[in-house]
Amino acid sequence: MAGKRIFSGVKPTGHLTLGNYLGAMRRWADEDQHRADAVFCVVDLHALTVEHDPARVRRLSRQAATLLLATGLDPQRCTVFVQSHVDEHARLSYLMECTASDGEMRRMIQYKEKAAGAQARGEGVRLSLLTYPALMAADILAYGTDEVPVGEDQAQHLELARDLAVRFNRRYGPTFVVPKAIHPTVAARVMDLQEPVSKMGKSQARTAGIVFLLDEAETVRKKVMRAVTDAHADVVYDRAERPGVANLLDVLAACSGGDPQALAGAYGSYGALKKDTAEAVVELLRPVRERHAELAADPGYVDAVLRAGAARARELARPRVDAAYRAVGLLPAV
Ligand code: TYM
Predict the structure, then answer these.
(1) Are 57 and 48 spatial neighbours (Cβ–Cβ below 8 Å)?
(2) Which end of the chain has the smaller Cβ count within 10 Å, N or C?
(3) Which domains does the chain carry?
(4) Is residue 190 within 8 Å of 157, Cβ to Cβ?
(5) Strand partners for 80
(6) Residue of higher predicted confidence among 117 and 105
(7) Could you tell me which of 210, 214, 212 has the C-alpha nearest to residue 192?
(8) Between the CA atoms of 24, 30, 33 and 36, what dihedral angle is there, to the nearest 10 degrees?
């Protein structure tokens, strides 16, 4: 497929959530792979930026790759691979560290939040947590990416990737395409059902407010029915004042293709809204869970997809990363 290049990724730091699906993954399968030369990556190197169990990262990486295929990514149409299988990411990341400044890395919201979390747990803050956005910029820029479909929480990282591309090109000559972030119109930031002022995140310790893609239907229903709302009785869409209800309306709108504001008018009680939202989420995830079970029973197939994906990704990334190495003044190997 000629024309635009799309790149995006998921990090195997936990089980993938409804937030990952509505904010990013669903459109990769439903739209992006059909409209551009799309490349999707399980970004396992990023999972090493926080304390991790090697066996768990391995398991979650395989599960994430299997889930990407289960959502409908078709390896005949797009490229699916694991980041650590393609050396170009780490090679280019170093050049991005040489392009970025210490100050701009320290300004990243996710760094501040995650570093504070690690310190609160008495864990050290890994240097790679600070340099994470340099690797993320490398992921994107290595592929000459035009568009990056992501949830809203990645907007600041994307801005940085753009800045680094522009700066590198200005210093060393035109090398990188300046990428653009694409966010969904609804559910770009799905909130935790128990704590609707925080993002639904896959690595949170408390899971009662997180719908995982592989949760059983009954579990999904329970989590949605117990979602925190507020003391009002009427259903109004107001993200600032009524975050819990607004979140349910966003999720329902994203599942049903409706508009959250308009949906609010259709409900007279929280109970009915929760019930419909629960059923909509169960139906949305059902085919993904079923397909995941089939694919998980055939690890040989998933391996073959990842092997072919990595080979294509290497081919795509190599020439641009080589050009960047030459542009900064590194002596080509002969
Ligand atoms: P990650 O693994 O945290 O999330 C994967 C994708 O899911 C989106 N997302 C959400 N969207 C809406 N509501 C939520 N609650 C929610 N939680 C997650 C994220 O915005 C993301 O699109 N740094 C990235 C991974 C990455 C990457 C890249 C992405 C590394 N290199 C290059 C794009 C391009 C991350 O941690 O995503």
Answers:
(1) yes
(2) C
(3) 5-183+299-327 (3.40.50.620), 217-293 (1.10.240.10)
(4) no
(5) 40
(6) 105
(7) 210
(8) -90
Pocket probe for ligand 1: among 7, 11, 145, 190, the residue whose CB has the most ligand atoms within 8 Å is 11
Task: Please tell me the pTM assigned to this model.
Answer: 0.97
CA 326 – CA 334 distance, rounded (Å): 13
Structure tokens at 22: 């509505």
pLDDT tens per residue, range 248-288: 999 999 999 999 999 999 999 999 999 999 999 999 999 99
What is the DSSP pairing of strand 180-182 with strand 79-82?
unpaired
Residue from 4, 11, 112, 114 carrying the catalytic annotation: 114
CB neighbour list of residue 271: distance below 8 Å, 6 or more residues apart: none
How would you class 46 by CB atoms within 10 Å of its CB: exposed for 0-12, middle for 13-18, buried for 19 or more? buried
DSSP three-state, residue 214: coil
| Residues 81-106, mean pLDDT to the nearest whole number | 98
Work out the end-to-end distance of the chain between its first and last CA atoms, rounded to an integer number of angstroms: 34
Range 157-187 burial, b when 16+ CB lie within 10 A, else e? bbebbbbbbeebeeebeebbbebebbbbebb
Structure tokens at 234: 């009427």
Q: Report which DSSP code applies to 181.
A: E
What spacing in Å lies between the alpha carbon of 332 and ligand 1's midpoint?
35
Q: Letter for the amino acid at 307?
A: R
CA of 303 to the centre of ligand 1 (A): 23
- Name every protein residue with a CB atom under 6 angstroms from any ligand 1 atom: 7-11, 19-20, 22-24, 43, 46, 136, 139-140, 148, 150-151, 153-154, 157, 188-190, 199-200
